[in-house]
Design a protein that fits this description.
The chain contains 20 helices and 31 strands. The chain is α/β, with parallel strands linked by helices and 664 residues long. The chain folds into two domains: 451 residues, ANL, N-terminal domain (Rossmann fold), CATH 3.40.50.12780; 124 residues, ANL, C-terminal domain (GMP Synthetase, Chain A, domain 3, 2-Layer Sandwich). The two termini are 28 Å apart. The structure holds adenosine-5'-monophosphate-propyl ester.
Length: 664
Amino acid sequence: MAGQVTIGDFYSEDRTFPPPPEFRATALVKDRSMWDEANADYEAFWARQARELVTWFEDFDTVLDWQLPFAKWFVGGKLNVSYNCLDRHIEAGLGDKVAYYWEGEPGDTVVLTYRQLHAEVCKFANVLKGLGLKTGDRALIYMPMVLELPIAMLACTRIGVAHSIVFGGFSPDSIMDRCNDAEARIIITADAGYRRGVASGLKVNVDAALAQCPTVENVVVVNRCGLDVEMEPGRDHWWHELMATASTDCAAEPLDSEQLLFLLYTSGTTAKPKGIMHTTGGYLTQVAFSHKYTFDLRPESDVYWCGADIGWVTGHSYIVYGPLCNGATSVIYEGTPDTPRPEFRQGDPAAWPKDRLWDIIERYGVTQLYTAPTAIRTFMKWGEQWPAAHDLSSLRVLGTVGEPINPEAWMWYHTHIGRERCPIADTWWQTETGGHMISPWPGVTTTKPGSACGPIPGIFIELVDDEGQVVQRGGGYLTITKPWPAILRGIWGSPERYFDTYWSRFDGRYFAGDGAKLDDDGYLWLLGRVDDVMNVSGHRISTAEVESALVDHPAVAEAAVVGANDELTGQAIIGYVILRGTYQASDVLREEVRQHVAKKLGPLARPKAVILVPDLPKTRSGKIMRRLLRDVVEGRSLGDTTTLADQSVVEELRTRALDAPAED
Ligand code: PRX
């Protein structure tokens, strides 16, 4: 099983960090009684959480209806997500509490209270209604990190419209595929968003997609950067113009617990992304629960910050729904960590100060920071002088998500950001799980750098071997043995694919696609994907998707893609390409092929290197041997190559891999 965790000097299964005594003394959870309660009767446990954390218009009558692989949670219950995230806090007298401190990349700021957020959400819900949207419809959202994004999401939830957010870094083709699969009636977007000091266009990508999105009737455009964009009369509307006349009066619809809340497309092992379905009651319960306890949340005093983009599941669950349901005060920052406020931007951007994050933590008094290992490794590269120049004493809990954290990065985070005072929650979960599944809890768990420790209460994990036998110690495939409230309800439009992808490999178990290891103390160490899914900077990209984008280029006859270990991004995309006979290999063509992938899928999927080869290693039955390709780029010995049809191919590959320059 391929492991991704870099085992370095810090790695030791015996190195432990108990919760700091001062932290533990006042922690929300100090002992394992919640685990005991959940182990004794997990349905009753989740029912208690659902009733404690969420307000129901009508109580549910059945906790769980489980017909493998289809789960229904809190059946018969009626609720509304936006009511839970807004109205009830205002009714409780918290209307003037800050929901979001928002900071734009250019340094502009907005402080939005729960009352103000509620008013904006009601207005936009009325806008949606005015455009003919109704319960059960789908809205596609393609936006930068501006406040209109959570406003649009919550407005959808208020009237039972499901949103499908497409990350702003994706291409027109990705918008088109997702839009058509979901049959979205509306696209909500912006002219552009700021990234590294530049207005990066979004509407222009929507325009390019729209020609082939027949279901879209209306487009709403936020004016973020004042760009001159094309607006098609009758179809395209400015957000501010529609909002100017919208009423702030909009009742929250009582919706079924199993009402579709959102679709979020994610990469699998095929070229076609899957529309992961999440519904209302179970999802909200688990994200509120995990947000509260993983981060030891004190809504009355904390300023919580998740640095993810709302376009990914982390942003859905831990910038929007979890924190707002819990009445938290959060920070949202629009831009990149290496873009300082404009007054500090002098000369070459490469020489700009790299302390925007630490500056924000200091100015807002951030108490929890939730970010990705890739980001931490980048901060390590930039150097500890940047955080050292700031007062980070407000921080209480640190979190990581998205990929295995190597012990070195964990220790750096602990030392230079947490200043050895803050527990670290390494949270393992997936788009499909909706919320945290494996994570230490800060007042209880003794952590080990690089280990996600164990499941949270109410979640049941087992490792199994190839035959599906349970593994008590050592490596195995990560499986989940009982349904959980925020479990995906399926893949949009493909119930069979849902079963095949997650439930067919091991009988009666959800197979996550990850490998893991259990140490002698029963701690889980996540080892990365065991399928053809890559994890680049915490983002999932399938080898098949990139391969199909590569062969889409006219010069490419055949392509094979592998994820190679990369110090900074976890994995890096390496594309092996065989050119069509009429094309001559050249650096220009190689670069063109590489950029073609970015154009088809978005810059995230651009291969770090494209290696032009005369042949690919294949088994006698014609299957590409990816393992060999990975071994070649990572410079490992090749092990058993006896199944290879043509042994000479490998030597050729080795030479080419050494020759190929790696691009940024
Ligand atoms: O391989 C695991 C990795 O990210 C995958 C899920 O990706 P995605 O659905 O995009 O969601 C990312 C944010 C939740 C998993 O199958 N992964 C996520 N968190 C961790 C992780 N791997 C190791 N440790 C983690 N904490």
